[in-house]
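Standup notes
- DV: blocked on the single-chain target, sequence here:
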Amino acid sequence: MSAAETVRPEDPATVSARDPSGSFLLSIVVPVYNESGNIEELARRIREALPPSWSWEAILVNDGSTDGSAAELDAAAAADARIRVVHLRRNFGQTAAMMAGLDAARGEILVAMDADLQNDPLDIPLLVTELEKGYDVCSGWRRDRRDAALTRILPSRIANRLISAISGVRLKDYGCTLKAYRRDVIRDVKLYGEMHRFIPIYASWQGARVTEIPVRHHPRLRGRSKYGLERTLKVILDLIVVKFLTDYSQKPIYVFGGFGLASMAASILCFGLMVYYKFWGGKTFIETPLPELVVLLFVVGFMSILMGLLAELMVRTYYESQRKSIYQIERTVNMD
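- DV (later): unblocked, structure below
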């Protein structure tokens, strides 16, 4: 793991996330999409899990739910002013909902978790304790995961190993939403696509200390999972974007120029093979279509990836140059 083992000398005995009154301040961010039946139980578990001395807020972001989640969120906010609700105008996706919650959070310590009751709020104090030791990010690891082995656990393990190998940040469970962050290490992070799971990578590349601890994982009791095998493919594509933006956003010629040189080298190689078959292999140019086919398929595939990366850069330029948000808020509850 990309985490230093030394503790910051300036860190106090407890995490320095304080509100003006001097009490402990923690922000819990929970994206919600069609979780009717789970909201009241989630709010109760959060209240029971956190020490009475802590000052906290739970920001529940309604990501365009079409069931009864909106009404249940409003009821939870009415019952407890610490429950703050953001209703988005439509379904923007988990990453956009997460970004909306992080933008609305006031605490210096941020904890993200799912609303389906599979994450356990009892693990929140454990994550915060790791930050007290000097870490900037603490990620949950669902060691005893309660999901389908073939459709959920196996693709997740493959994706985790691939992400760790490419990013250099060794975590066993990138897909676990339950994570704790110091605000200063994610202050300037902008999230798109499915990139909320890559926040530890962004933070580590900026010098943050990242650690991982085992957390509880419960089987889903109500509602339907929003994850499928297609999510793994999206994660891989987003990982390519993250790597590209980190290494080549300021020098894209290295990618496009490298591709051009590779294409030229492939052309020369194909030309050499054609000459060889013509004079020593006893075959004319039109009798050997395989080299052209291989080159064509390679170029088409690689160009598709490059075009996708270029499109990602254009999207970011569009949003950030015009200060456009990736989400739109319809209304809020218990927000200042």
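- Follow-up: The chain is about 45% helix and 15% strand.
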